[in-house]
Amino acid sequence: MEIIKHYIMIFLISMVPLIELRGAIPYAVGFIEHGTELNIVLCYIIAIVGNMLPVPFIYFFARKVLIWGKDKKVIGKFFTFCLEKGERGGEKLKAKAKNGLFVALLLFVGIPLPGTGAWTGTLAASILDMGFKKSVIAVMLGVILAGIIMGVLSYFGFSALF
């Protein structure tokens, strides 16, 4: 039962904006390094699924909700911040990518830096009207790349510490 709790936590952590898979993988590796019998492949798959689950909702609804809420009293500043962050991310991607927007989105999501995950990448793709199927594939490949990078960094980081 204890192991199932860890798998559920990996899933939930990977869904949180800004933390996403980049936090779920080190969480999993940390428990594996401490002797918990988690399956690393299953952890990786659960983290990818958890990170990708919000993507369709973000693509189809986040932009509309942010535009709706940007002039509201309580939530306006935060919604404006999120909308502007997505627009800036989209414009940066567009400027750097020229015709290679798919690869740029994949790398934007895949290189594990703060604020460059599936949430921001999907919002940027939505703002750029990139197309749902193409966006989801680029984001998924980026999430897979980020998972590999975080897995390797986490493994060697925890191994060095312990």
Account of the 3D structure:
With 162 residues, the protein is an all-alpha fold. It has two domains: 2-51 and 146-161, no CATH class; 55-145, no CATH class. The protein contains eight helices and no strands. It has helices at 2-15, 20-33, 40-52, 55-69, 76-97, 101-110, 118-127, 132-161. It is globular, with a radius of gyration of 17 Å. The two termini are 26 Å apart. The model has no long low-confidence stretch (mean pLDDT 88).
Task: Provide a brief overview of the structure.
The protein is mostly helical and about 160 residues long. Helix content is about 80%, strand content about 0%.
Q: Count of DSSP helices?
A: 8
Domain count, please report it.
2
Order of helices and strands: HHHHHHHH
Low-confidence stretches: none
Q: How far do the termini sit from each other? A: 26 Å
Rounded to the nearest angstrom, the radius of gyration is 17 Å
- Main sheet overview: none
How large a portion of the residues is in β-strands, by DSSP E? under 5%
Q: What structural class do the secondary elements suggest? A: mainly alpha
What proportion of the residues is helical, as a percent range? Answer: over 70%
Q: Give a count of the beta strands, DSSP E runs of length 2 or more.
A: 0
Shape, principal axes of CA atoms: globular
Mean pLDDT: 88
